[in-house]
Amino acid sequence: MKVLITGGTGFVGSHTVAAVAAAGHRVKLFVRNPDRMGPALKPHGLSPGDCEHAVGDVNDTAAIRRALHDCEAVIHAGSAYAYALPFWRSSALMKTNVNGTASVLRGAHEMRMDPIVYVSSSWAIVQSKPTEPWRPTSASGGKSTTASTSPSTRGLGGEDCSREA
Fold it and tell me: What is the CATH number of the domain that holds 101?
């Protein structure tokens, strides 16, 4: 199976690339900067030549569609973050983390990807009003939602993922 991975040059994404490749799947990275691939993959015993890549931004719908074109599945681990300012106040972060995520998931759904995996971020625990105290609403600590954009509940290895944790 060929899997598109966004955020593959980040910490979680690079570990995801290594796991997906180790499971025998073909990996295609969707990256903003291909120069970051080598340093991100090297600690996992991989090199940029071990996977395909497409250059683009999650806010560019056409680039997303081109990257998804020859893939069967997608893992969206791409996000933006900032330590210097409250992240809920940054329109650039909102654009990437909310609109960009929606674009990737929508494109994957429309192209009938299976599975579609979204790796959440700190946005999962953000309340609608940042001044409210944080209260976990699910076992994972984030807002509890059940959403499926994929017609199946199979994992990449074919395992049944339909049972609730």
Answer: 3.40.50.720
pLDDT in tens, 108-130: 999 999 999 998 765 555 545 55
pTM: 0.72
CA distances from 127 to 40, 103, 106, 124, 131 (A): 32, 22, 23, 8, 8
Token pair listed for 16: 């995801």
- How far, in Å, CA of 53 to CA of 59, rounded? 17
Domain assignment present for residue 44? The answer is yes
**Residue span of the structural domain in which 20 resides:** 2-125
| DSSP E strands, the chain | 2-6, 26-31, 52-55, 73-76, 116-118
Contact (Cβ atoms closer than 8 angstroms) between residue 17 and residue 8: yes
